[in-house]
Design goal:
The protein has a six-stranded antiparallel beta barrel with strand order 1-10-13-12-11-14. Strands 2-9-7-4 form a four-stranded antiparallel β-sheet, with no helix packed on it. A four-stranded antiparallel β-sheet has the order 6-5-3-8. Helix 2 packs antiparallel against helix 3. The chain contains five helices and 14 strands. It has 387 residues and is α+β, with helices and mostly antiparallel strands. The N and C termini lie far apart (105 Å). It has three domains: 121 residues, Efflux pump adaptor protein, beta barrel domain (Elongation Factor Tu (Ef-tu), domain 3), CATH 2.40.30; 61 residues, RNA polymerase II/Efflux pump adaptor protein, barrel-sandwich hybrid domain (OB fold (Dihydrolipoamide Acetyltransferase, E2P), Beta Barrel); 129 residues, Helix Hairpins (Orthogonal Bundle). It is elongated.
Length: 387
């Protein structure tokens, strides 16, 4: 029997069919393995999320901050010296700027002169008081003499009156003695009035002494204030840090309170992170924080939650929102959270205020607290329903 002609296409199909079935079986196994892996990965992710992941609260609405000190003069004047440069590191107490002190020193000298004048016035009044006491002593002596003379004249009148009645002495002599007694009594009253006036003058002179002393104290207070102004002509750094925003130049006239520069304490940096209100339920001071700084790519710093603000950021704005209106739209509010930075000195040198950071807070430590709170609320509601 002659050979049948062969069909190449049919032969290739017969050979490809087992290979296709074999490949289809492998694909199914691969898909099954991939699906199993995805299920396992999803389960692991879900378990990790439920046990740890959902307790990590993250925000990128955060910046590095520092409590900067503004350098401003207490007195007005012309700038005589600028002792620091922009971006220079300074220590606490280091001189920064000197204002021309001549005006302040002149005021201090004037106050010292007023102290001397007041002291001289008080000394003069004291001398007058001493003189017045001497005058009082003289007036008292004169009063004593007048009283003695008046007593003598009264005694003479008393002695001569019986004699004049008996005719042993003339009535003219008695009249002379009575006139002398009346004059002596008048002298006593006059001397008494003079003594009382001299004594009253002492109080006036003592008042002048006190006035001079008060003027001296007022002048001393002015001198102290002038001394403070003289010292204030040299501006020093209240804290250690780095100079920034320097706007002062030599020869410039500045008023009291004019902003000259700022001192930034780079060793006391912190982070202000604005978390959504829905992220704060488990956030507590002392919880650990992971910090990623945009300027330090790949560097992760550590920190701690230091405190939470007593209100949302909107409440401390210049114009707080008023929700009692007809066009109210609910917006998720943000609360500032202060985070301390736990970094090495080498890392701190690379941080400056204003840098953007991403903050992640581990809040799992408050998990049991929120669960207890839920249980208490449920129990309270159950007791309320049972009544």
């Amino acid at each position: 029997m002659p050979d049948q002609p062969t069909d190449p296409v049919a032969d290739s199909r017969d050979e490809a069919a087992p290979a296709a079935r074999k490949l289809s079986g492998r694909a199914k196994l691969l898909l099954l393995a991939l699906a199993t892996l995805m299920l396992v990965a999803g389960g692991v992710w879900y378990v990790r999320y439920e046990s740890r992941g959902k307790y990590f609260q993250e925000t990128n609405d955060a910046t590095v901050q520092a409590d900067m000190v503004t350098v401003a003069p207490r007195v007005a004047g012309y700038i005589a010296e600028v002792l620091v440069a922009e971006n220079q590191d300074v220590a606490a107490g280091q001189p920064l700027v000197r204002i021309d002190p001549r005006d302040a020193r002149a005021q201090a000298a004037q106050a010292e002169a007023q102290i001397a004048v007041a002291a001289a016035q008080a000394d003069a009044a004291r001398a007058q008081v001493r003189e017045q006491y001497a005058t009082i002593d003289g007036a008292a002596a004169q009063l004593a003499v007048a009283r003695a003379k008046a007593a003598h004249d009264a005694a003479e009148v008393a002695r001569y009156r019986p004699l004049a009645a008996s005719g042993a002495e003339t009535r003219e002599r008695l009249a002379q003695l009575e006139a002398a007694a009346i004059q002596s009594a008048g002298d006593v009253r006059a001397q008494g009035s003079t003594l009382a006036a001299q004594r009253r003058r002492v109080a006036s002179l003592v008042g002048q002494v006190r006035q001079g002393e008060a003027q001296g104290r007022a002048a001393q207070a002015q001198a102290d204030a002038a001394a403070v102004d003289v010292g204030a002509t040299t501006l020093t750094a209240a804290i250690g840090g780095r100079i920034g925003d320097k706007t002062v130049t030599v020869g410039q006239y500045v008023q009291a309170g004019t902003r000259l520069m700022s001192v930034v304490p780079l060793d006391r940096l912190y982070i202000t992170a604005n978390f959504k209100e829905t992220q704060l339920a488990l956030m507590r001071p002392g919880q650990p924080v992971s910090i990623k700084v945009d300027a330090l790519d790949g560097v992760e710093l550590k920190g701690r939650v230091e405190s939470l603000a007593p209100g949302t950021g909107a409440q401390f704005s210049l114009l707080p929102p008023q929700n009692a209106t007809g066009n109210f739209t609910k917006i998720t509010q943000r609360v500032p959270v202060r985070v301390s930075i736990e970094a090495t000195p080498a890392a701190r040198r690379l941080l400056v205020p204003g840098l953007s950071v991403t903050v992640t807070v581990d809040t799992i430590s408050a998990k049991e607290e929120i669960e207890r709170l839920r249980d208490r609320e449920k129990n309270a509601q159950a007791r309320e329903r049972s009544r």
